[in-house]
Design brief:
The chain is an alpha+beta fold. 23% of the residues lie in helices and 31% in strands. It contains six helices and twelve strands. It has helices spanning 39-47, 71-82, 156-163, 177-187, 218-226, 230-236, and strands at 8-12, 16-21, 52-53, 62-68, 87-95, 101-105, 108-109, 115-116, 119-130, 140-149, 194-203, 208-213. The strands form two sheets. Strands 1, 2, 3, 4, 5, 6, 9, 10, 11 and 12 form a ten-stranded mixed β-sheet that branches. The longest helix is centred in the N-terminal third of the chain and has 12 residues, at 71-82.
């Protein structure tokens, strides 16, 4: 990705901007990063104004990402996130067959090894089984999950699903290398299969509900098609595909 690329705007007014974040780019520069391109820089150049980061997505995660366009809105949105008043919804492909519904309540360590409460809820949308041996199993099983993190800890979803032995496919840090290799070889999938589908909250500028959604990228849709989940994905995710 280069700075010449235009980011897809999902919402824009004088005080708030939402974009469809691509997988594979960091939101902003860090002290240890060796990247040359950062999403915040690209968006700042595209809009021609200062922006404030109000939350983050991992480099490998795609989907809805918000930026404030003034300091007061940044503070307001920060309070909403901190209070858990923003409903976050993700879709993910995970290893194994999940329970129909579940809750992962496991504290996670963060900066300076401080441990904080972390809660993630999920719903299984579909399952599939591939006739491919991944030792010690004779077949490979996967689930499509709708995920609602109730807190916002670093790598929360990825760490929580690894904790319950259902790591997200494509996760090189908290996942299963054997299944990652299978998806690269069989489907040409070289990314983390985690997408932020929507954010819903009461917008401080209008005091009205705002629901911002991001369609699944083509590379994720391709995997969903191959796994036989196209109809299910169409029911739970916005789409920018042409009809027919």
């Amino acid at each position: 990705m280069t700075k010449a690329r235009t980011l897809e705007l999902l919402y824009l007014d004088e005080r708030l901007c939402a974009i469809a974040k691509p997988s594979g780019i960091m939101v902003h520069r860090t002290g240890i990063s060796t990247d040359r391109v950062f999403l915040a820089d690209v968006l700042r150049e595209q809009l021609g104004q200062r922006i404030w980061t109000v939350h983050r997505l991992d480099r490998a995660t795609s989907g809805v990402l918000l930026f404030a366009l003034d300091a007061d809105m940044a503070a307001d949105m920060g309070r909403l996130f901190e209070a858990g008043r923003i409903a976050k919804r993700y879709l993910a492909v995970v290893r194994g067959w999940l329970d129909e519904r579940g809750e992962i309540d496991k504290p996670l360590s963060g900066a300076r090894n401080k441990t904080r409460d972390a809660l993630t809820r999920y719903r299984r949308l579909a399952t599939t089984e591939l006739p491919v041996a991944v030792p010690p199993h004779e077949t490979a099983r996967y689930s499509l999950a709708e995920i609602e993190p109730k807190t916002g800890r670093t790598h929360q979803i990825r760490r929580h699903f690894n904790h319950i032995s259902h790591p997200i496919v494509g996760d090189v840090n908290h996942g299963d290398r054997r299944h990652n290799r299978l998806f690269r070889a069989r489907f040409g999938c070289h990314r983390l299969l985690l997408h932020a589908v929507s954010l819903e909250f009461e917008y401080p500028a209008t005091n009205r509900p705002l629901n911002i959604q991001a369609a699944l990228p083509d590379d994720v849709l391709k995997v969903g098609d191959a796994l036989g989940w196209s109809d299910i994905i169409a029911r739970v995710s916005p789409s920018d595909r042409e009809p027919g």
